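Subject: Protein entry, chain in single-letter code together with its fold tokens

Area: Proteins and the way their chains fold up in space.

Attached in line: The record itself begins immediately under this heading.
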Amino acid sequence: MKIVRLERQGGFAWGAVSGDGIVDLSRMVGGGHGAIHAFLDDDGRRRLADHVAGRTADMALEDAVIAPFLPDPEKILCVGVNYHNRNAEYRDQSELPKYPSLFMRTPGSFTAHGRPLLRPRESEQLDYEGEIVIVIGKGGRRIPRSQALGHIAGLTIMNEGTLRDWVRHAKFNVTQGKNFDRSGAIGPWMVTADAFSGYDDIALQTRVNGELRQDDSTANMIFPFDYLIAYVSTFTTLRPGDIISTGTPTGAGARFDPPRYLGAGDMVEVIVPAIGMLGNPVADD
């Protein structure tokens, strides 16, 4: 099942994608802050699936105004350098990391599928990073790795847009370059966990103006999904709706010689066949 967040009458609503249409979930889920959280665990997702089964679409998908897929997260955690060949991409002869690199993003740093990524006037180094995103369905603290996958509500897609010069403003801090307003995108929807037989070989590609730039699979991750959930929940309580973006493969624009940053008019598509396609044009802020 694909769960989508929609803009409606100055607020937000929830729907389920069914073919070329959307089944409205407003009466079931409601539109209040955190209302979707009760439907992200196993039982809640079953109730949504039962509600959607056999219903006709309430609107055409092409007529819907899709919002960033942000299920009122308390935390948006992002993982850096999590693919084997990405570590080698740094060319510093370093060994594989023992622990994940982590940073956080704000909801306002994301836009929706189809909306422009904004290149701020303060930088000409807006870069793309295609990523697969875990949405937490069942919260917990110190979650055992053996149980971690049971805490996943589903997966979505992120373009973890980065201002490369701003991530180097401080010695140990990338926060500035990761949080410019609408510099990244998330969506277009979440595919629920029951749609996946496993998470060990999920393909991911990023294309810029149709040119393939990133092409990899979760099979090449240094820290797989279960490890990330167990590790993160060691120091912070995960809650329903929290988001963990799992890292980007090699091929970001900064790694070309010369670098190939994004400019106004470019089109970025992050494709995960098991989920869908997140597409965004680029515009100057």
The first helix runs from residue 26 to 29. The two ends are 35 Å apart (CA to CA).
